[in-house]
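Hello forum,

I keep getting stuck at the same step: I have a sequence, I want structure tokens, and every attempt I make locally crashes halfway through. Rather than fight my setup again tonight, could one of you with a working pipeline run this one for me? It's a single chain of 132 residues.
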Amino acid sequence: MPHIPQWSHTLSVRNARLDEQHIVLIELSKELIALVRRGPPTDAPILEALREFADLARRHDELEEGLLAANGCPTLEKHLAIHRMAEAELDRWMVAAASESLDRKALIDGLDGWMAHHLTETDMPVKGYMHD
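Reply #2:
Ran it on my machine without issues. Output:
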């Protein structure tokens, strides 16, 4: 069972734009997992949902990285590396879905782990550097 967190004020990074994006990413993750579990006969609808998720994730990462850089976050390089790894994973899933070779269980597990890790382990420790 996925462990995608429910949004609560305890997950806030005290930046309204980033919090809103986190909320939408959580919901998109849940919708994507539900779609995969419904078992569409092809990966095409999953690919479409992955593209939507990846687009927002990239815009979110860009905003986050800009704020962290502007505010002198001492762990910026580590944060950037984590974002690049997550984006590469999204790219691999989209390539697999486009070729109808997506490992659907791995996608569910990956999304679950990414959302939980991104919010609690990656962002929370540096939320003091995410102000406008």
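Residues 95 and 102 are 8 Å apart (CA to CA). If your local run keeps crashing, start a new thread with the error log.
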